[in-house]
Write a structure and sequence with these properties.
alpha/beta, Rossmann fold, nine-stranded mixed beta sheet, two-stranded antiparallel sheet, 8 helices, 13 strands
Length: 252
């Protein structure tokens, strides 16, 4: 086992650079790793220095590491014990334990999640796929991509429970399920206020959508931002994507 700053690496683990303020992240070489959707979502909300953030289903903990300097406190919840352990060790590796707390917990258990209405911003990169669509992945990848352990309703319910009045819930999802998203938000007193589609390249339909909703906000007034394009005509990442992403390595 390699040891860095008192943090041990386990078999089949590696340390990757976030290319963000010198921060690094521990990931498995043979398992789920953070991808572009996490980076896009991390940069979508507008944070205040004194805000408290909750990350539902943090995975390996990329989003908290990317936004720690913009917030007062981040609580990152992850169901899988091994993945939560990697996220917690990444926090230690970067010396951010005073700002980020990783908890191995099931956010469907609202009573165990936290006292209600404690957070200013809730982030969620929930599984996109409905189980009725059939299996698309196995192991931790399945939990990240399909509603194996938590459904869209579970995520929205947890966000509503955790948010203070007029707090913001931001998520990234598939456009094909927007009707489900709007129905879930409305049922839990969350009003969508900002939305942005992400398309892979010109002429291709959007395959992701970023949504920000306000707890207790009035219905209506949804602002649809200009579409974000990932690749330009030259096959390279667009300047706007690079501006959002910085020098981070984009993983497919």
């Amino acid at each position: 086992m390699e040891i860095m700053k008192g943090v041990r690496l386990k078999t089949n683990e590696r340390v990757d650079s976030l290319d963000h303020l010198g921060r690094r992240i521990i990931q498995r070489t043979d398992g789920f790793r953070f991808a572009m959707d996490a980076v896009l979502l991390a940069h979508f909300p507008r944070y205040k220095k004194d805000c408290r953030v909750l990350d539902l289903g943090t995975g390996v903990g990329a989003m908290p590491l990317l936004i720690a300097e913009h917030t007062a406190y981040i609580e990152a919840v992850e169901l899988d014990a091994e993945t939560a352990g990697m996220a917690a060790r990444s926090v230690l590796l970067n010396g951010l334990e005073k700002t980020i707390r990783v908890r191995q917990a099931d956010y469907r258990d609202l009573g165990a999640l936290a006292p209600p209405e404690r957070f200013d911003v809730v982030l969620a990169n929930p599984p996109y796929g409905n189980l009725s669509d059939g299996p698309t992945a196995k192991g931790t990848r399945a939990g990240a991509r399909q509603e194996v352990t938590a459904t869209l309703i579970d995520v929205v319910r947890a966000a509503r429970y955790a948010l203070r009045y007029h707090g913001k819930f931001a998520m990234i999802y598939r456009p094909a399920r927007l009707a489900d998203v709007f129905a879930a938000l409305s049922a839990h007193q969350l009003a969508p206020k900002r939305m942005r589609f992400v398309e892979p390249r010109a002429g291709k339909p959007a395959n992701l959508v970023l949504i920000e909703a306000v707890q207790g906000g009035a219905q209506g007034g949804l602002v649809v931002l200009p579409t974000l394009r990932v690749y330009g005509g030259d096959g390279e990442y667009t300047p706007e994507l690079l501006e959002i992403y910085g020098k981070n390595r984009v993983e497919s």
